[in-house]
Amino acid sequence: MATNKVDEEDYLATLFPPGEDDENDPSAMSLVDHLEVLRWRIFKSLIAIAVGAIVAFVFREQIIHFLELPLPKAADSLTKGKPIVTGITEGFSVYLMISIAVGFILALPVVLYQTWAFIAPGLLEKEKKYAVPFIVIGIMLFAIGVSLGYIVLQYPVQWLVTFASDSFAELVTAGSYFTFVAFFMLAFGIVFELPLVLTFLAQVDLITSKTLVKKRAVSHVSMWIASTFLTPGADIYSPIFLGVSMSCLYELSIIFIKITKK
């Protein structure tokens, strides 16, 4: 009987190892506890974005002037290339929108850290060591993408403004112009995160470097087709810049996967 009792205790120990019900173990947290942690992570991220937006609002004039540089003087002969506002609140709304967008960019390191801090307890030790490099590389790639988007921005803006200038008097509103600028630059920033997305999928064994090499031709053609849809306007420069960038990032992803999976 004693032997059977010992065997039963050993069997239960294998099913419920010591420490599994430890309240301090993140894996033992309830759904409500996880939601509470998530709420605080989101709250801290919003605080960082708000602080960044306040800083951006202080320097709103300099930011507006910087973003207006790609707008050609031919946009409006009366305002000499400056966008116009059509409502009493539009000027303030544009400043607020730009401040929030710039505030998010400034708070991106904090947002990425809070995201990593939320998912880190569920990662293995060998997976955690890649967290900091991924965050740093992600910020660098996003910054490079946004910078390239700003450089390329002049080409679609120039084409769109001068396309129908012989038939219409072009009056560019501040809301339409800065919304276009935000989405255009954001598209470049997101596209440049392609290596991190593919590398993450490789880490969870959804893809491999061999799969990317095998699908290389199809992927490059698909990315060049997508670049024509992601860049509004009929200028030839924007899709070329984005297509070349996506192809280079695809090849960079293969290198990342080979290094990290090794």
Main attributes of the structure:
single chain; 262 residues; mainly alpha; 72% helix
In angstroms, what separates the terminal alpha carbons? 51 Å
Mean pLDDT: 78
Q: What is the rounded Rg?
A: 25 Å
Question: What kind of assembly state do the chains in view correspond to?
Answer: single chain
Principal-axis shape equals flat
- Note the beta-strand portion: under 5%
By DSSP, the count of extended strands is 0
Given as residue ranges, the uncertain stretches (5+ residues, pLDDT < 50) are: 11-24
- Quickly count the helices: 13
Please identify the structural class as seen in this structure: mainly alpha
SSE topology string:
HHHHHHHHHHHHH
Q: Roughly what percent helix?
A: over 70%
Report on the biggest sheet: none
Describe the structure.
The chain is mostly helical and 262 residues long. Helices cover 72% and strands 0% of the residues. The chain is built from 13 helices and no strands. The longest helix is centred in the N-terminal third of the chain and has 28 residues, at 31-58. The protein is flat and about 60 Å long.
Offer a concise description of the structure:
The protein is mainly alpha-helical. The protein has helices at residues 2-15, 31-58, 60-68, 90-106, 108-119, 125-128, 131-152, 154-162, 174-191, 194-203, 209-214, 216-230, 237-261.
What is the fold's blueprint, element by element?
Blueprint: H1 2-15, H2 31-58, H3 60-68, H4 90-106, H5 108-119, H6 125-128, H7 131-152, H8 154-162, H9 174-191, H10 194-203, H11 209-214, H12 216-230, H13 237-261
Helix pairs in contact: 2-4, 2-5, 4-9, 5-7, 7-9, 10-13, 12-13
